[in-house]
Protein: Isochorismate synthase
Amino acid sequence: MIESLAAKSISQYEALQQILHAGFQFGGSFALWKRPKSNELEVVFDDSKLARKVNISLEDVPSGFIVHPFEDQADHSAFFIESKEYFKIPFAKDQSETNLPEWIQKFAEQGDKSLQFAPDHFPKISAQEIKKNGGDKEHFLELVRKSIAAVKMGSMEKVVPARTKTLEMTKDFDLGKSLLNLIHTYPNSFVNFFHLPDVGTWIGASPEILIETSGDHFYTMSLAGTQVAKGENPLKSAAWTQKEIEEQALVSRYIVDCFKKIRLREYEEHGPKTVMAGNLLHLRSDFRVNMKETNFPQLGSVMLQLLHPTSAVCGMPRKEAHEFLKANEGFERKFFAGFIGPVNIENKTSIYVNLRTASLSQNTITLYAGAGVTEDSDPEKEWEETEVKCNIIGKFIQTANN
Ligand SMILES: C=C(O[C@H]1C=CC=C(C(=O)O)[C@@H]1O)C(=O)O
Structure:
């Protein structure tokens, strides 16, 4: 349902606060997001008190927001925030004011203001759970060493070990402000927030599309290789090592192998080129298919099932890399490196890999990051890379006034 917006303008910060307030008071699940380069913020509310699940055959799914963990589900299901209410509001950077649907403003005015930010909506994590959730540096270094050894032994070409970083939830943590900062700092990312009662509450800024379908057009990308952007024109001056070029080429090969599996020969491939995500540079290739010309109307769902988890977040071959991570990583990825995004909204589905992300609990915020390992990797450098990746979200969470 598309709502008309109220005439009264409010600041973008206030709008975010009111959306969050209404979302938590609604009692169901909700999500908000801003697509890369878009000037609009989109929101869905679902009043269902029980987390909804759908099959990941997306053609049959109503409008909404999908949330799938890293682990494949035996029943091919994902969590789903059905679009019982959907609206979008202007949210350009240079436009400090915006409008909300009238009902949200009324809802927020009537409600209890103290609930505007309510960490008690989030699950509580015990100290014991924090300890075993994979944030230890020595554990990660050892994991990378083991990864390199396994690649050298020939059982895998690449693997993507990950870690967490846990921050304390401070009293001055301001969710609306963190989101506003993420939105304006990362205009090329998919900035997102979703809340599934009793399941999880996550905030992130992903640079990686897993699949997108819009009308007859299908799109996916291979993204890998990381360096910190430096200098005046980082996109032009970036140089890539053989290790990074190979790492990204493996992700592209993985996509082409998926096309081969379904005998799809007509696709466009462009790249790789250097792209910017926050203060990081990556190598990216773009893949496009016309679903009408290739007579493949269900390509989105088919590729979603074939691609996830890609070798940008798991490794290659996928099965061996996944088994290695399960045996050695030592923590549960949950929704990290899973996939999230709007489905069948205005004839478009945009599903992102859930990277540069954090889960919120009553007392902690857990950041997640991984790094692609090949035989030329250096454990200390991979640790540094995950620090920088964690910081993309972390720096807007640790200090409320950032
Ligand atoms: C696994 C992550 O990034 C992936 C995407 C781009 C570059 C990557 C890399 O250089 O390792 C990773 O494959 C992450 O951000 O946690």
